[in-house]
Amino acid sequence: MTDNAEEALRGRAVPARRGPFGDKQQLSERVAAYVREGIMVGEFPPGEFVRTEHLAAQLGVSQTPVREALMILHSEGSVRWEPRRGYRVVALTGGDVRDLFQVQAYIAGELAARAAEHLDEAEIARLCSVQDELADAERAGETDLVDSLNHEIHRTVNKASGSARMASLLNLTVNYVPLRFFGTIEGWPSASAHDHAEILAALRARDPEAARRTMVGHIEHIGELLVAHLTKHGILA
Question: What is the pTM of this model?
């Protein structure tokens, strides 16, 4: 990595060392999430080799969870294995990002449609209250709070769908883009405040099709903001 990447690395959360119960799987997943975020913010540029021993030393972990993490990323298409050379970062394209968000939009839209038929009055009132807090946080420029409240709204809707397995599938796709990353995207806080208002109106009306349509539109909107952000910073191929 570059010196700038090294400096940025120190400001990011690193995976915890393995505890006494040997949570190796969790550790490898956390390392994978760390590298995923590094790719998204340009710390691992396209074509660069991710050196197992170097990354293990930086994160203070053994090489085993790093190798396992790179295998996870290889299965996702984020890195490519080259014999006798190692894992090379695969270039990310706008089409890749749009494909990912289209999948998210399809699943999230279906969950919202189902939630429209299952949310009770207390849950809808709570969602509206959280949305008011989110709008206030957006106006105040408190992006961390917007992030937290945004997550609460989506989690509540997904849970209310009564479709736990489908929600789990959505979580798998969401893992491709680090949640902490969204706060850095221009236009994301205001998009959350605006788009959510339309989604909540559909949920209050108990209108599954409107809930699906507005949720799909919201997720695709966020995807386009991310494409614009990554393009602006020279990260997309």
Answer: 0.83
